[in-house]
Amino acid sequence: MKVPLLDLKAQFTTIKDETMEIVEKVFDSQQFINGPEVKLLEQKIAEYCNCKRAIGVSSGTDALLCALMALDIGPGDEVVTTPFTFFATAGSIWRVCAKPLFVDIEPDTFNINPELIEEPISEDTKAIIPVHLFGQIADMDEINKIADNLALDVIEDACQSIGATYKGEKAGSLGTVGCFSFFPSKNLGCAGDGGIITTNDEELADKMEMIRMHGSKPKYYHKIVGANFRLDTLQAAVLLVKFKYLDTWSEKRRQNASKYNQLLSNIEQIKLPVIKEYNVSVFNQYVIRAQKRDELRNFLSSKEIGTEIYYPLSLHEQECFKGLGYKKGDFPESEKAASEVIALPIYPELTDDQIEYVANSIKEFYNM
Fold this sequence. Notes:
Order of helices and strands: HHEHEHEEHEEEEEHHHEEEHHEH
Distance between the termini: 20 Å
Mean pLDDT: 97
CATH superfamily of the largest domain: Type I PLP-dependent aspartate aminotransferase-like (Major domain)
Largest sheet: 7 strands, mixed
Number of helices: 11
Structural class: alpha/beta
Strand content: 5-15%
């Protein structure tokens, strides 16, 4: 039996006719830039996230960049974030010539630890970027309390967590802005790169709309220097089809996670995902901690089971960030996670037989 980490073809077969129909409609219209599908998607995502506005952009990375630019964060400024996340979080801070201030993670959720956030903050700190990692929202009450006390903006990196809730509130509605990715592997993925930003600040939304169009409003009149961060009409069209199934697919991911939890609960050598009682995760990834992680991964590969390590090297240890002055040992929980985590297949189309095969293979490895 083969179990890939992700099987996008299995999903596409269920929506192929709908997708090709709407894509053909875009080709017939030839409105590839800022077509009506972009605006419709923005309206649907804003409503879904319980936000006043949503601004479609070219990727999750560009969503972060656009948000930072709109908040006037730049040279000399600092932004608090986690070292245990995809590179784009800190990379975007660096791109606007600001300084990432790393804070270690909670060992159970892998999200930024609010108890440690205030320690590195200085008068140059302008914002906090919590990452809702693997589909679970960070502790936003505590993060917002700190931000409010110190007059900091909060940029939710919700690229992995569209549809996740925290105490009943949706990801993307809990900070100054929320940034989402539509990378194909996400719960809501397009046919390439895409992203969106949510906010309840109308003035900020207007500014981000200008920034994504080179800072122009009206066309050819530039109030500020922006960039080309537009979401393609074709990608918006694909997303409109997939959006109808988002909650169904996320629920299937939760069901798959529950099956894994039942089948893997008695294996002493691994630790299962911990979801806080006030959170509903969308399980963009199902990540366990495992003893002999690398050996386990090789064994599963020999069984034709796909896995991935998110993430093998913490950001404070990346070569490009040497100038920040961090060293190995500065963030022990992040470093420990990097040496232990492994993601198992969790996509909605996964069958019970495939899940059992993965679980039995893990049991086989630890019983050898």
